[in-house]
Amino acid sequence: MAKSGQKYPLANCLVLVGALLSSQAANAFSCDAGPYVIFFDQNSASIGDEAREILAYAKDAAQVCKYSKVRIEGHSDTAETVEMSDKRVDRVRDLFRELGFAEEMTHAVSYGPNRLRKSTGPDVPMRENRRVEITFGPWEVPAD
């Protein structure tokens, strides 16, 4: 029985708050399919702390929103080669596999310096262009 002045017993309030928080957590992602963007240092495919946070958020969004497929697009700046974007894609794809995405549910492609986020001349290092973009969806994964 509730104490005088209390409208609901404490146990019921905790259950209601827990349900509300779970509902808010599901809505917090707004089921955003992306793209989630991870930036890289020059000539590097290393995943730093900031990138790990983005990957963790993307993984949580995929679980909450029931996304089953992931597209991973690698990019480099004009001072790098397409092979560098290949390494970045491979690293991120490996992390998604570790997170439970089956190989057949991932599609990865490297564009090298062909799809710049910020236009530059040749041989210009630009952080905004050294990236991997992650997008989730129910779309068909193309056969390689």
TrEMBL record:
Residues 27-140 form the OmpA-like domain. CDD domains: OmpA_C-like (cd07185). Coiled coil: none annotated. Residues 1-28 form the signal peptide. Keywords: Membrane, Signal. PROSITE patterns: OMPA_2 (PS51123). The keyword NAD does not apply. It comes from the Bacteria. InterPro entries: OmpA-like, OmpA-like_sf. The keyword Signal applies. This is OmpA family protein.
